[in-house]
Amino acid sequence: MPTIAVTRSISASMDRCELVHLERTPLDLELLRRQHDSYERVLVELGCELIRLPAADELPDSVFVEDTAVIFDDFAVITRPGAASRRPETSSVAAALERYLELFEIQAPGTLDGGDVLRIGRQIFVGMSSRSNADGIDQLEAIVRERGYELHRVGIRRCLHLKSAATWIGEERLLVNPEWVDVSVFDDLQLIEVAIGEPAAANAVRVGDVVIHGSAYPETRKRMEAMGIRVVPVDISEIAKAEGAVSCCSLLLNG
Ligand code: CIR
Questions:
Q1: Which run of H or E residues covers position 120?
Q2: How far is the CA of 241 from the CAs of 47, 177, 222, in angstroms?
């Protein structure tokens, strides 16, 4: 079975998206749609079967499907996003996933954003962010521990989610911005630091043996390429204005 990539089209109200670390600047919806289309095209070229959920125009941030669920081998955890405006995003994602995976759900008062959950094999790292609270992380731990996963809590600063600061790029390798994350929990991993001047370059998404990465970060890309990693750059400049990055725009189910 190929990797299934769940995505969602850009919302017509995306200019009302949540923002934490960025000033609001006007969004160009046409450009957003073109960039998102190119991102989806790359996923398909890399062999993914695409399930594109219809746009939810009343939900500004709904393109960022990563935050609504955490995917494991044969189950998924439907989150309860930290931003109240994003909570209605989860039901349609759950409806798409239930054909493939057993579903568990984070309950109130817990909150969890999928962007805070980094999975490397049986090790789960969760960012203690403004979006994922202690109760939500405890609930996730209870679900995954029973199924043989070990959960580690990770301190982050000056960024939205753990995966703004650290993402897995294959084998034992982690792309990181050490200014934004406490890297001491990643003892057993090989850390590849973002280049100076590219603080947001630690977000990537690995599909097969290829890494999708924002095209605005050429120096960090060179570091990965120098290690023999194949990188496909995509232009997400407009998506970045909404505090999104490449991993946020898909949920990958590995067949
Ligand atoms: C938000 O603040 O929730 C959105 N504007 C951005 C979410 C980006 N998601 C991600 O990094 N996983």
A1: strand 117-120
A2: 28, 19, 24
Is any atom of ligand 1 closer than 6 Å to the C-beta of 89?
A: no
Active site (annotated) includes residue 161: yes
What is the CA(32)–ligand 1 centre distance, in A?
15
In 62-156, which ranges are continuous DSSP H helix? 90-97, 134-145
Helix (H) or strand (E) holding 77: strand 75-78
How many alpha carbons lie under 13 Å from residue 182 in its C-beta half-sphere?
A: 12
Position 231 pLDDT exceeds 60: yes
With tokens 């089209």, the residue in question is 9
Ligand 1, residue 64: give the atom nearest the CA: 9
| pLDDT digit string, tens, across residues 164-178 | 999 999 999 999 999
Whole-number Å distance between alpha carbons of 177 and 203: 9
Question: Considering the chain, what is the average pLDDT of its residues?
Answer: 97
Asked if residue 26 lies in contact with residue 71, where contact means CB atoms within 8 angstroms, the answer is no
Report the separation in Å between the CA atom of 112 and the middle of ligand 1, taken as the mean of its atom positions: 12
* 99 C-beta neighbours (distance < 10 Å), count: 8
Q: Tell if the pTM clears 0.85, that is, is over it.
A: yes
- Report the pLDDT averaged over residues 100-116: 98
The CA–CA distances, whole Å, from 97 to 56, 184, 223 equal 17, 34, 35
CA of 228 to the centre of ligand 1 (A): 30
Q: Is 185 in the pocket of ligand 1 (CB under 6 A)?
A: no
Instruction: Check 48, 159, 248, 249 and give the catalytic one.
Output: 248
**Residue 17 annotated as catalytic:** no
Q: Work out the average pLDDT over 99-111.
A: 98
The predicted-structure confidence for 57-73, as pLDDT tens digits, reads as follows 999 999 999 999 999 99
